[in-house]
Design a protein that fits this description.
- By secondary structure, the protein is of the alpha/beta class.
- The protein has three domains: 1-75 and 352-415, Nucleotidyltransferase, domain 5 (2-Layer Sandwich), CATH 3.30.420; 86-161, Dna Ligase, domain 1; 197-351, Nucleotidyltransferase, domain 5 (2-Layer Sandwich).
- It contains eleven helices and 19 strands.
- It has helices at 52-70, 104-117, 164-176, 187-195, 198-203, 235-246, 250-260, 289-314, 336-344, 369-392, 398-414, and strands spanning 6-13, 17-26, 30-40, 44-45, 48-49, 76-81, 87-96, 124-136, 139-142, 152-163, 180-186, 205-210, 215-221, 224-231, 273-276, 285-288, 324-327, 348-350, 357-358.
- The strands form five sheets. Strands 11-6-1-2-3-19 form a six-stranded mixed β-sheet, sandwiched between helices. Strands 14-13-12-17-18 form a five-stranded mixed β-sheet, with helices on both faces. Strands 7-10-8-9 form a four-stranded antiparallel β-sheet.
- β17 (324-327), α9 and β18 form a beta-alpha-beta unit.
- α4 packs across α10 and α6 runs antiparallel to α8.
- The longest helix is centred in the last third of the chain and has 26 residues, at 289-314.
Length: 415
């Protein structure tokens, strides 16, 4: 079956911003951005929906902006999920091989065995089951076991779960905005697809997505994901610190952060000052830029210290030869990579989305890492589905289409 051009949409529902990215997947699986929309996020706290009505309105505004730019009607979306409710665990699966050669069905059975062995509470939902390593008899470190001879197949998987209520509320908001949810994707997993190279994943790398309400961590080693975590601190905490420390409104604190904020106080040159609006009708005050920087630096240092502790707790300290990559809107603060290097004791770079064409200049910003990653994730799924359809043929019998439907369901479930 020849591949056709089709539209995919990534919806990044963040604590401070709703982002919508529309892309056209062309022949050859090329991703071309054709529309971008964004809107201030109202109704979320630390990545979790706390006001459905406000969240729905924010989603609608971002979608309308993206539709106008792309000149298409958006009906279905891939959405990202984060928040402190996200958790991960490892699981192990093993199956006996019916034939001496490993088949795709054997791989499926092994992954299903690992999934079934995981202990997941009833109030949680499995978001991803990600194979890390396969073993055939005594052969370890296998990534693509199909075709290898043996009698026993084992797999280690990384399972990501989220609170069922949080996922349900997220889906409810999207549906009330008039959209269908194709799949829920862990935000750091999506971001990693947009900013990490295969070499970094192979050598070992920690990706830190600094969002508004949370900071997402994903660790990759030997080419596959090894650990995920969501830390309940982000850019909004910097703004709140400035609001309290400077005794100003939240909106003015945000403006000061964006216009004058730096992550390292030592980067402030001279005796520069910034006008700080007061509250309650009081006159504005002139405060030093170094004071602003000191407030920001203290919180950013705390964030990266939490990241360092999580890396140590995961057991991957000393195994990240490629260092760390920071992304997300908060990573744009000047001096952020320098402070991260100092705290993490790792080489650090700021990651921007890559791997797309079209209006890529509009998304060449760390704040669009998750949105672009959702598009790339979706394009990979559609490629596997197209291959599955093509390998079976174009028969039109009800039995054949039922099989194809099951193939699609399996692919969306596991990938």
């Amino acid at each position: 079956m020849p591949k056709k051009e089709h539209i995919v949409v990534g919806l990044d529902i963040g604590t401070t911003k709703i982002g919508v990215i529309v892309a056209e997947i062309k022949d050859g699986n090329e991703v071309h951005i054709i529309g971008v929309g964004s809107s201030p996020s109202r109704g979320l706290r630390k990545g979790v929906v706390v006001n459905i009505e406000s969240t729905v309105e924010s989603i609608k505004k971002a979608v309308e902006e993206a539709e106008l730019m792309a000149a298409v009607q958006i009906n279905s979306v891939y959405i990202g999920i984060a928040g402190s409710h996200i958790a991960s665990q490892s699981a192990h699966g093993v199956v006996a091989l019916k034939r001496q050669e490993v088949s795709k069905a054997d791989v499926d059975r092994a992954v299903a065995s690992a999934r079934a062995s995981a202990v997941v509470a009833q109030d949680r939902r499995i978001l991803h089951v990600l194979p890390r390593e396969f073993r055939v008899d005594d052969q370890e470190g296998i990534r693509k076991p199909v075709g290898i001879f043996g009698s026993r197949l084992e797999v280690d998987v990384h399972i990501v779960t989220g609170a069922l209520s949080s996922a349900q509320n997220l889906v409810k908001c999207v549906r009330q905005a008039g959209l269908q949810v194709v799949e829920i994707v862990l935000q750091p997993l999506a971001s990693s697809e947009a900013i990490l190279t295969e070499e970094e994943k192979e050598l070992g790398v920690a990706m830190v997505d600094l969002g508004g309400g949370t900071s997402d961590l994903a660790i990759f080693t030997e080419g596959s994901i090894s650990h995920t975590a969501v830390l309940p601190v982000g850019g909004q905490h910097l703004t709140s610190d400035l609001q309290i420390g400077l005794r100003t409104s939240h909106a003015d604190a945000e403006k000061i952060k964006i216009q004058h904020g730096v992550s390292l106080a030592e980067m402030v040159q001279g005796n520069g000052t910034v006008e700080v609006p007061s509250v309650g009708g009081r006159p504005p005050r002139m405060l030093s830029k170094s004071m602003v920087a000191e407030i920001i630096e203290a919180r950013v240092e705390e964030i990266f210290d939490l990241v360092r502790c999580e890396i140590r707790r995961s057991g991957y300290e000393g195994r990240l030869a490629a260092g760390a990559v920071i992304t997300g809107g908060t990573s744009l603060l000047e001096g952020m990579p320098d402070l991260a290097e100092r705290v993490l004791d790792l080489p650090v770079r700021r990651g921007r989305p890559v791997g797309v064409g079209g209006l890529r200049d509009l998304v060449n910003n760390p704040m669009f890492a998750t949105g672009v990653g959702l598009i790339l994730h979706a394009s990979g799924i559609n490629q596997r589905i197209d291959q599955a359809y093509a390998s079976v043929g174009e028969a039109g019998s009800p039995r054949m289409w039922g099989f194809l439907s099951r193939v699609r369901t399996w692919l969306l479930d596991y990938f």
